[in-house]
Write a structure and sequence with these properties.
The chain is globular, with a radius of gyration of 19 Å. It is 67% helix and 0% strand. The longest helix is centred in the middle third of the chain and has 29 residues. It starts with a helix and ends in a 16-residue tail after the last helix.
Amino acid sequence: WWFIGNEYWGMAHYLAAFIVSFWSWRLTHNWYRSWPGWAHEDWRYVNFRKQFGKHFEWINFSAIHLYPTCIVFLSLSGLFYLFDGAQSLNGIIVSGSLIAFTGTLLELFADNVLFGERKNPEYQIDICVRKGLWGYSRNPNYLGEILFWIGVAWIGLGAGAPIWTCAGAVGMLLMFVFASIPMKEKRLSESRSDFEQYKAEVPVLIPFLRKRNLKGH
């Protein structure tokens, strides 16, 4: 976008470009510092390979690679309406940028806590992490990712994008709520001895949104 149309760029373009770049820098940095080497295979691939057997390859292609790729492109579609021409800064673009930036910060802080804990010699692998944001949400990194894509969609709307461009953010929300979070929590229930207590005390996604039992406690 910079090389094909930077003569149109104003504050709105630079702000959106920084937001998306900041998100990508955080993602790449967290992957790089946590990557154990070529021999490592993500636990989701391992589970899928065991679960689906001979059907693994096409499920791997469609569910793990193709769907996320399509949903990311769809989620970014609103930004084409911003970067394809001149666009002045407005309140919707600013608020969308703040939402996306806040989401990225949540991911950054959540990832930093996990990284620090795993480097801690006293880290207990069978106990849930409750430090920082993990004491307020069981999935603060996923919450941050959802907010990022909602913010991107909101930026697009501020640039005049049609409502259908929000479908990507909706798809992201559905993917996390009905696929990513259930898969992760199932794994934690099998590997963390205190997960049921953690689940009862900490909301799944939105901080302070706790369930009340019949006695009101």
